[in-house]
Specification:
elongated
Length: 172
Amino acid sequence: MQAYVNAVTALSRLCGVAAAALIAVSVAVVCQMIVLRSMLGQTVVWQSEFITYSLVAATFIGSPYVLLTRGHVNVDLIPLYLGQRARFALALAGSLLALGFCVLVLVNGVEWWLEAAEGGFVNDSLWAPKLWVPYFALPLGFGVLTLQYLADIACLVTRQALPFGMTPGGRP
């Protein structure tokens, strides 16, 4: 079990690095687009689309890292007032619901991605990228997010992690 958790942790960290790289590349492309358009008076064809696809991909691909580091917005008012058993039940129920949502989006995302790949779909812009490339971020991100939720649930059930990261006294 610990080998699985370690492997998923490494994969989630890699997703975080990939998301950061996508954001950095997007910033560089924005700068390049500004130089081309404003200073050199040239037209830009692919930059705006690339930036949009990259930032959306960074969101999906970076989500497992956000879950791993508990970087998401978390309202812990209710868990603070619950006892340890109720806190555990709430954490488990929340994680299972989130896991179900992730699996649902993953299945639909894989179907969507396969449809774009097999159909040879391209965007109807001048750049006309093959859409399976940016669409792949959805099943990739939600696939690793599903694995990360499974690892979190396993750690919660085996008591390797505390519910909401709180000690029995209610402190994070």
